[in-house]
């Protein structure tokens, strides 16, 4: 009996040593793990602060790059015709404070890297930032800041004590039609400034009871006192519904807007397929922002990348969002949440009644790590539903991309290295030989973040004939 126990004990020790050895051998950068359950394809991303956009295969090998010496600003897409759409970072706009996540410029590059469209939206009144979105008609949606003076803000009912910088940058959505190498026509526009409510100053036209107007934003609900009071960071377009969803990080909410309106209708509260003009059709994540909930009702915490799951994919029509989890009850941790919005086939959302908050009360599906604190990206980041039902997650702060099954098993993991001197080229981690980020040193050893990663299938039209 003692011999049996001794043998079992030796086996346990041996297995533990094998496990520790395997863990020690697992790379920290480049391709970390890959199993047969992953969705094979190519992953596109643009490291923050770098001038190159990368396309890697399932083994973490770089198969194509685009670069023209300009930093990302910070969104990038591979179009179905094989061209690259990217926002560019311009740091010469002093009015809007040279934001590190800024843009101000949008380009389309050919597969060979040649610039085919170079459009600028950066002046004293407007500044493109964060995200852009290609549309089926060839136009591009831009997130744009609009400059408002202190006097304009007070005239809109803003409490003067909430103007720490003496100005505001409310959100605008602009649809641009490319018309030439450097030109574009603005064919549609929506301004948040036209859809405000407030209960601070009864002399203003937008004075009212905030809880009775969830279709508008309370101009005095702030979690960020600076000029960038909304901090919108993601946009998506649903062609079937002709609707737009945007994320406002500082509000802890996502908002759905009717795109079927004219620009004139988008300024008001009637018109469009849903008859509501430019008012919110739906909002979700933080009912405190419209005085229909308490702290325990909040579901989003500094989220990014809200988007509809595309037709033909598992969960089609649901909204997927990266929930960063800053200051989340129970401790900081991130999650990827899939929600089922209360919408009919014709795009009409359930009306709010009796002081209720918008549903759903909980996500349909959610990914968290175990323990939860092992997965936490406090900024940037995104997620994507894949054709096999898996979900690709970009934990942006760590430059980590990983794929999980519906049962939340990790089947692929990759971490971009950004020129780490100790990342072997064979791992796929060395992206630029000897390259260092702007603040070289400790930051270079950690990686500098990725706004979002997008997986394209091997049969994606934009990759046809590329010999990958």
First-to-last CA distance: 60 Å
| Overall form | globular
The number of helices is: 4
Given helix and strand content, the structural type is mainly beta
The low-confidence runs, each spanning 5 or more residues with pLDDT under 50, are 1-24, 420-447
**Major sheet: arrangement of strands:** 1-28-27-26-25
Oligomer: single chain
Number of strands: 29
Q: What can be said about the biggest beta sheet?
A: 5 strands, antiparallel
| CA-based gyration radius | 23 Å
Helix content: under 10%
Strand content: 25-35%
Mean pLDDT: 89
Q: Describe it for me?
A:
The chain is 8% helix and 33% strand. It contains 4 helices and 29 strands. The strands form 8 sheets. It has a 5-stranded antiparallel sheet, with no helix packed on it. Strands 4-3-2-29 form a 4-stranded antiparallel sheet, with no helix packed on it. A 4-stranded antiparallel sheet has the order 5-6-7-8, with no helix packed on it. Strand 25 (382-385) and strand 26 form a beta hairpin.
């Amino acid at each position: 009996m003692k011999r049996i126990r001794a043998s079992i004990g030796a086996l346990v020790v041996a297995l533990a040593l094998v496990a520790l050895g395997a863990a020690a051998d697992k790379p920290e950068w480049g391709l970390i793990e890959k199993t047969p359950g992953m969705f094979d394809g190519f992953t596109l991303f643009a490291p923050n602060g770098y001038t190159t956009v990368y396309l890697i295969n399932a083994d973490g090998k770089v198969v194509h790059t685009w670069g023209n010496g300009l930093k990302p600003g910070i969104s990038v897409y591979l179009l179905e015709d094989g061209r690259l759409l990217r926002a560019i970072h311009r740091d010469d706009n002093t009015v809007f404070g040279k934001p590190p996540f800024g843009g101000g410029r949008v380009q389309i590059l050919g597969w060979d890297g040649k610039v085919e469209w170079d459009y600028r939206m950066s002046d004293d009144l407007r500044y493109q930032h964060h995200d852009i979105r290609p549309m089926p008609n060839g136009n591009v949606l831009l997130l744009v800041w609009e400059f408002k003076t202190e006097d304009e803000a007070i005239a809109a009912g803003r409490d003067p004590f909430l103007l720490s910088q003496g100005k505001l940058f409310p959100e605008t959505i602009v649809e641009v039609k490319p018309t030439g190498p450097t030109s574009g026509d603005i064919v549609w526009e929506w301004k948040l400034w036209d859809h405000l409510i407030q209960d601070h100053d009864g002399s203003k036209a937008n004075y009212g009871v905030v809880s009775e107007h969830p279709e508008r934003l309370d101009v005095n609900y702030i979690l960020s006192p600076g000029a960038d009071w909304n901090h919108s960071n993601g946009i998506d377009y649903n062609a079937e519904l002709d609707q737009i969803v945007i994320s406002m990080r500082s509000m802890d909410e996502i908002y759905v807007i009717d795109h079927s309106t004219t620009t004139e209708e988008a300024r008001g509260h009637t018109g469009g397929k849903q008859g509501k003009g430019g008012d919110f059709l739906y909002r979700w994540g933080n009912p405190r922002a419209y005085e229909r909930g308490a702290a325990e009702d909040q579901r989003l915490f500094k989220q990014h990348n809200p988007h509809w799951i595309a037709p033909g994919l598992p969960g089609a029509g649901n909204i997927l969002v990266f929930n960063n989890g800053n200051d989340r009850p129970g401790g900081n941790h991130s999650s990827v949440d899939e929600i089922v919005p209360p919408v009919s086939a014709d795009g009409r959302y359930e009306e709010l009644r009796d002081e209720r908050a918008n549903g759903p009360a909980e996500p349909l599906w959610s990914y968290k790590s175990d323990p939860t604190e092992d997965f936490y990206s406090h900024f940037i980041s995104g997620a994507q539903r894949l054709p096999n039902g898996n979900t690709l997650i970009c934990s942006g702060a760590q430059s980590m991309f990983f794929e999980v099954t519906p049962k939340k098993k990790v089947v692929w993991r990759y971490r971009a290295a950004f020129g780490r001197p100790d990342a072997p080229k064979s791992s796929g981690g060395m992206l630029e030989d000897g390259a260092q980020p702007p603040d070289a040193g400790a930051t270079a050893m950690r990686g500098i973040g990725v706004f979002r990663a997008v997986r394209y299938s091997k049969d994606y039209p934009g990759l046809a004939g590329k010999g990958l």
